[in-house]
Design brief:
The protein is α+β, with helices and mostly antiparallel strands. The protein has two domains: about 1-65; about 70-200, Heat Shock Protein 90 (2-Layer Sandwich). It is about 50% helix and about 20% strand. The protein has helices at about 1-35, 40-65, 75-85, 90-95, 115-130, 160-170, and strands at about 70-75, 95-100, 110, 135-145, 145-155, 185-190, 195-200. The chain is elongated.
């Protein structure tokens, strides 16, 4: 629990410290826009500042509305939409994979923390990036033996070795969760060439 509180305090402090210089950037660029309306670069700086401000407000809203590590009822297809949107701007992953969401399962709800889902999903992708790039991956929500799950499915020509599969199935390294309490468990489904993150 102390680790969770520490992460939250670090993020809140970071947001606060970034807001001070950001407010100066927004104030001066806003004034310069009025004084020099024909200089496009000033407008670009101002709009970039607004975008950063919105991102910080969104992050703070998530921190105050819920704990990242708190289990809650989450719609997995909706979570996957947001996760893929985030990963499209995450450089270590965006240049390695093209993610396609399978929306066959319209609704699938699980009691899990958003942090556990993201940790499992992003760790699996980062581990895959050690071996592959320019790879198409189909992903989405599903069920497995009565449990909700998320998945990463690979084209049939992709043949993962047993060692690679073992690495993908390992729990993400974290001081925030004990292995026995981590809510997402990896399972390999060889006949479908996919890895499941089963929520228990």
């Amino acid at each position: 629990m102390n680790d969770k509180i520490l992460v939250r305090h670090i993020l809140e402090g970071l947001i606060h410290n970034l807001n001070n210089p950001l407010n100066l950037i927004l104030a001066y660029s806003h004034r310069l826009r009025k004084e020099h309306p024909n200089i496009d670069e000033i407008d670009k700086i101002y709009r970039a500042g607004i975008r950063i401000d919105n991102m910080l407000k969104d992050l703070y809203s998530q921190l105050t509305e819920r704990s990242f590590a708190l289990k809650q009822e989450i719609s997995l297809p909706k979570w996957m939409d947001q996760e893929i949107g985030y990963l499209q701007h995450y450089l270590p992953i965006k240049h390695h994979f093209r993610l396609y969401q399978d929306k066959a399962l319209k609704e699938c709800v699980a009691s899990v923390s958003a942090m556990e889902l993201s940790m499992w999903f992003e760790t699996a992708l980062l581990r895959l990036s050690m071996w592959y790039e320019n790879m198409d991956i189909r992903t989405g929500a599903t069920t497995h033996e009565g449990c909700s799950a998320i998945f990463l499915a690979f084209n049939q020509e992709i043949e993962l070795s047993e060692e690679q599969i073992d690495i993908l199935l390992q729990m993400p390294e974290s001081t925030m969760f004990e292995e026995e309490s981590f809510g997402v468990h990896g399972i390999w489904v060889p006949e479908q060439n996919k890895i499941l993150g089963v929520i228990r």
